[in-house]
Amino acid sequence: MLEHEQVVIRTGRRSRLPVIVAVHSTALGPAAGGLRLWHYRDWRDGLDDALRLSSAMTSKFAVAGLPSGGGKTVVALPQGTKPDAARHRDVLHDVADVIASLGGAYATGPDVGTGPDDMAVIGEITPHVFCRPAHQGGSGDSSPHTAQGAFAALRAVSRRLYGTPSLAGRTVAVAGLGRVGAALARLLAAEGAALTVTDIDPDKRTIGEELGAVWAAPEKILGADVDIVVPAALGSVLDRQTVADLRCRAVVGPANNQLATPEAAELLHERGIVWVPDYVASAGGVIHAVSVELHRLTADEARARVDAIERTVDDLLDTARSRGQSPAQAAGELARRRLGAASGPAGRPVAQRPPAQEQHA
Ligand code: PHE
């Protein structure tokens, strides 16, 4: 059964590339979610990604307690290609056309492969776009805020496991040093954590050196002998095998869609490893963007909302423990409760859904 309100798949008139916009739910408010420009073997894999990522955005806003819905855009680039600058603009304008046609049901933002300058290009055609550069009226790069939110989640996990929110002296493995991963690694290093890091791009080694981090091979990072593993790259990293190989006490990070298979959350729980659902730990960027651009909060107020992820995770871990559930179950129930309390478009009740972690693996 399709649980999404609408999914638009269109061949871009300029770029001839498949543009996929998935609006999962507007039950809590107009949908928001980033534009992912990434390579896929088949555009249908991009469709799968859009479906799962947009569903995760619905949960992200619901758990964060914000009146927005979930959506996502994927432009599926053929394997081994990279659009040149002119074509890149064409892609962005093609995306903007689809968003404009949705009449405000969905607004986009940055995600893997896109940033504030791209949002400015989309803004040439439609106002439904977050995170344009500040001088163009947007809230700018969301990645430092996503990193700050993940850091808040890490503090809550640290309090639960070690009795102190401070990460000083903790051993932490950061998988992925993109814009978010690098910012988070810097926050952790500044706090005094001992880092192991990696990235598929060997040039990122310089960031590791700068932070005094140990460099690990990408395929070794999840199994690193550390206190906490932080997924900060692409998703689908947690499956039966990788969960069995973990040596840490917690997995918490800003990557979206960390579970490769739905049951991985329960396998983690059975192993006594704390996993904070990705849609909780990665919410800082969108929280900041909608707080500043839609709710007109000041920078300090928005920052306080991002920092409140620490409290949200504290509460989730408490609830999960008192009910004997995994944090994923507790978060899924919270999201469903908030979505169930709202009604869908035109008063349609929101369909009851199975726990979120069983869907956007
Ligand atoms: N990439 C962000 C996320 O996955 C999406 C986003 C950021 C959307 C900022 C809007 C504004 O949460």
TrEMBL record:
<comment type="pathway">
    <text>Amino-acid degradation; L-valine degradation.</text>
</comment>
<keyword id="KW-0520">NAD</keyword>
<dbReference type="Pfam" id="PF00208">
    <property type="entry name" value="ELFV_dehydrog"/>
</dbReference>
<keyword id="KW-0101">Branched-chain amino acid catabolism</keyword>
<feature type="domain" description="Glutamate/phenylalanine/leucine/valine/L-tryptophan dehydrogenase C-terminal">
    <location>
        <begin position="140"/>
        <end position="347"/>
    </location>
</feature>
<dbReference type="Pfam" id="PF02812">
    <property type="entry name" value="ELFV_dehydrog_N"/>
</dbReference>
<feature type="region of interest" description="Disordered">
    <location>
        <begin position="320"/>
        <end position="361"/>
    </location>
</feature>
<dbReference type="InterPro" id="IPR006097">
    <property type="entry name" value="Glu/Leu/Phe/Val/Trp_DH_dimer"/>
</dbReference>
<dbReference type="InterPro" id="IPR016211">
    <property type="entry name" value="Glu/Phe/Leu/Val/Trp_DH_bac/arc"/>
</dbReference>
<dbReference type="InterPro" id="IPR046346">
    <property type="entry name" value="Aminoacid_DH-like_N_sf"/>
</dbReference>
<dbReference type="InterPro" id="IPR006095">
    <property type="entry name" value="Glu/Leu/Phe/Val/Trp_DH"/>
</dbReference>
<dbReference type="InterPro" id="IPR006096">
    <property type="entry name" value="Glu/Leu/Phe/Val/Trp_DH_C"/>
</dbReference>
<comment type="similarity">
    <text>Belongs to the Glu/Leu/Phe/Val dehydrogenases family.</text>
</comment>
<keyword id="KW-0560">Oxidoreductase</keyword>
<dbReference type="InterPro" id="IPR036291">
    <property type="entry name" value="NAD(P)-bd_dom_sf"/>
</dbReference>
<protein>
    <recommendedName>
        <fullName>Valine dehydrogenase</fullName>
        <ecNumber>1.4.1.23</ecNumber>
    </recommendedName>
</protein>
<comment type="subunit">
    <text>Homodimer.</text>
</comment>
